[in-house]
Specification:
With 119 residues, the protein is of the alpha+beta class. It is elongated and about 90 Å long.
Amino acid sequence: MKINVHAVHFDIDPKLVGFIQNKLNKLETFYDKFISGEVFLKLDKGDSNKIHKKHIEIKLSVPGNTIFAEEKGTTFEEATDLALEALKSQIKKFKDKRNEVEHKKREIPAEEEVVEDDF
């Protein structure tokens, strides 16, 4: 899956990009039809200017839908792990819903041909 990582108002470490890419690639074990992904990394200022919360937003495109999660943590790695847990549950729900629709389509019998008799 192709993933674009964007750092808002700071320079990103290539190791962090690799970490995020590896984590998101593991999602393909749950669903293998991802089209693309976008990751936005932001620093949120806390009560004092010295403390920055790490904020991550992940948007994954799948056929016919978009899956989105955003989380905050003390590190980007922690925020990434939290967002991945949210994405996993969304992916499972998405797959279950899709499978229900496909299963219902198979259950609908084809309409029988009605033959009218002339009396």
